[in-house]
Write a structure and sequence with these properties.
By secondary structure, the chain is mainly α. Helix 4 packs parallel to helix 8, helix 5 runs parallel beside helix 8 and helix 8 crosses helix 10. Strand 1 and strand 2 form a beta hairpin. The protein is elongated and about 105 Å long. The N and C termini lie far apart (87 Å). It has 11 helices and 3 strands, in the order ββαβαααααααααα. Strands 1-2-3 form a 3-stranded mixed beta sheet, with helices on one face. The protein folds into 2 domains: 56 residues, no CATH class; 250 residues, no CATH class.
Length: 336
């Protein structure tokens, strides 16, 4: 083995040296030079010296990577590119929405083309199978609202108003909003994964070859099933949330179920329930369109499938919350 002491590399103990050994000597020489030394190779035979010299002359010199400085213009260019990309994606999603809506209207004009089996199957997947998690979520939200509301209202001796707090919060906002978020994470991602897997296996291309419209076969049944089942899940969430709130009010504040029911019926109008349920079909349309659209964008590799599945969940939740905010402003303007 070559030995280096900073100024000398001694090869006197090396009896045989091949190309790999010469490369090791040269790399040791370069490391010593990088440390500020000026090493000299000694003890090498003529053949070893010629091999090392030949290899040194033919080895590429690693160029120092230039340090790139990010300027203000680079930042502006990056922002501009991202903005243009977001606008293109927005226009593409809007175009996909129009295509899906037109397909659904066409199906209702020609009922014989509606795939009832697929719709019922997806209704079970996105609706019936989601009842346990939605009910548990809403029940816990009702418990938390009652507990936190009791802690604040007890200071003013207004514990009975916790019924109004729970009812209005759950019926107008939290019941349907949190249900939509759960469905976006559960069913929206499933839509993207299922359609994306078919896209990777070229099954969608095979459908087009057979003369079948993928939007009619794959997207429309999922969107229709979601539009039907999300209001049902919203009603389930409302009942579970009210039950959780009533239970915690009874335990924490001593508000009996009879008092809770009478207060709920007398002070909570049906318009609060309708405000929440009106949002459900729009939330369902957003979740279904985003989930199916991102599935259609999957390329032929698993990396794009995972990335677009995450994108569909994040985008669907963001759009649902944005739509809920717009609905709140709209109903506030109308005074509902």
């Amino acid at each position: 083995m070559p030995r280096g002491n900073g100024n000398r590399i001694d090869l006197s103990g090396v009896s045989r040296c091949d190309t790999a050994g010469a490369w090791a000597v040269i790399m040791l020489e370069r490391r010593l030079q990088a440390a500020g030394a000026a090493p000299v190779i000694t003890g090498a035979t003529a053949l070893q010296h010629d091999l090392i010299a030949t290899l040194r002359d033919n080895m590429p010199v690693a160029d120092a990577a230039p340090i790139s400085r990010i300027t203000v213009m680079d930042r502006l260019e990056q922002v501009g590119r991202q903005t243009v990309s977001a606008l293109r994606q927005t226009l593409s999603i809007i175009g996909f929405l129009g295509r899906v809506v037109a397909t659904i209207f066409s199906l209702f004009l020609h009922p014989s083309r509606i795939r009832w089996t697929a719709i019922v199957h997806h209704m079970q997947q996105v609706g019936l199978n989601a009842v346990p998690i939605v009910s548990l979520m809403a029940f816990l939200i009702g418990v938390v609202l009652a507990f936190q509301g009791a802690a604040q209202l007890r200071q003013f001796g207004a514990e009975v108003f916790v019924v109004d707090l729970i009812a209005i919060s759950i019926l107008r906002e939290l019941g349907i909003l949190l249900t939509a978020i759960i469905v976006a994470g559960r069913s929206g991602s499933a839509f993207t994964a299922a359609i994306g897997s078919m896209k990777m296996r070229e099954e969608i291309d095979a459908m087009r070859t057979l003369g079948l419209d993928p939007v009619e076969v794959l997207v429309a049944p999922r969107v229709i099933a979601l539009i039907i089942m999300l209001p049902v899940l919203g009603v389930v969430a409302n009942f579970a949330g009210l039950f959780g709130g009533a239970l915690m009010s009874w335990i924490e504040l001593g508000v009996s179920p009879g008092v809770f029911q009478s207060r709920l019926v007398s002070n909570t109008g049906v318009e609060h329930l309708l405000v929440g349920l009106i949002k459900a079909p729009f939330f369902a349309l957003i979740i279904g369109i985003v989930g199916c659209y991102e599935g259609m964008q999957v390329k032929g590799n698993a990396e794009s499938l995972g990335r677009l599945t995450s994108t569909s969940v994040v985008l669907a939740i963001f759009l649902v919350i944005t739509a809920d905010a717009l609905f709140s402003i709209f109903f506030a303007v109308l005074g509902v």
